[in-house]
Amino acid sequence: MSVIDVHSHVFPRFTRAEGRILAGAGEPWLRVGGDGAGMMMSGDEEYRPVDPGLWEPARRLADMDASGVDVQAVSSTPLMFGYGAEPSRAADWCDLVNERILAFCADAPDRLLPLCQVPLQDPALACEVATRAAAAGHRGVHIGNHVGDRNLDDPGITGFLVHCAELGLPVLAHPWDMLGAERMRGHMLPWLSGMPAETQLSILGLMLSGAFERIPESLRLCFCHGGGSFAFLLGRADNAWHQRDIVRADSPRPPSEYTRRFHVDSAVFDPRALRLLVEVMGTERVMLGTDYPFPLGEKEPGAAIRSCPGLDDAGRALLLGGNARAFFAAEPAARPAAQPSPDPAGAGLILEGRTT
């Protein structure tokens, strides 16, 4: 049984000078002390202490071995998005980030699956960067769930999602820059309350705006953190759609009919919550996600899946790896046909009938 983690992060060792590409927009870089401890930096400000698994491939692979993870999809840390920067600067930054992620994954191309990032504040430029990244070997794209006050159902961002569908490039959507932060002071409340709300907002926005009607069904889209509060509140959304014409004004179908259009990861931590998530989404639409290596992630990868009531062995196998293998199976169309595949996620993710 293959174990594939679709939700893990990386922060390559960017210098302070490299971070200045994003002049005035966070300027992310990594400070590593003589004792090996790291600190994510935003300009001159300390953002968060971090462990070497975030930037050292050898440490990450050792952690994967110790926890029984065969393959990780590797995506940038949201602090690195650069959505507040001038678009051309952001595009240069994304190209640099994407190069570093490819280099990071090259240490174990059979186990580390690179996902690119894009300057989503300029959807046309984001399409160009995604196309370049797919040609270079990235197997998916990692995006934030909004850009300022523009949600994923914004026409420009929806156009970018259409482009990803045409490329055959899977999309991992991650909550960030949480709404209501001024009311969530202390105790990591933006992460505990804001992140689920952000993800719920993104999913409902795509459903109720009619965006899913404009996006090809071929798009492979996954929301992190179990889709946030979405599964628990789906009944409320369906009830509202049936009762109020203002809710269904732009959506020809109730929200529950769109669950087949996306995936979610399993990062809900409670087997009872996971059972509800599987009942809402189906066993084919949930994939293992740990949020490695951050402290709020699942410390024992797949623990909730293995103890989830109502899941049989076949269902557990799908959640632990089978669904992710299918999600990342097809190579992006932008890769030149004559270029040999680097197979960064292992042969089992590309060829049917072969295991990781």
UniProtKB/TrEMBL annotation:
Residue segments, region Disordered: 334-356
Family annotation (Gene3D superfamilies): Metal-dependent hydrolases (3.20.20.140)
GO CC annotation, single: cytosol
GO molecular function: aminocarboxymuconate-semialdehyde decarboxylase activity; hydrolase activity; metal ion binding
The entry's keywords: Decarboxylase, Hydrolase, Lyase, Metal-binding, Zinc
Enzyme class: lyase
This enzyme's EC code(s): 4.1.1.45
KW Cytoplasm (keyword) present: no
Binding partners and assembly: Monomer.
Protein known as: 2-amino-3-carboxymuconate-6-semialdehyde decarboxylase
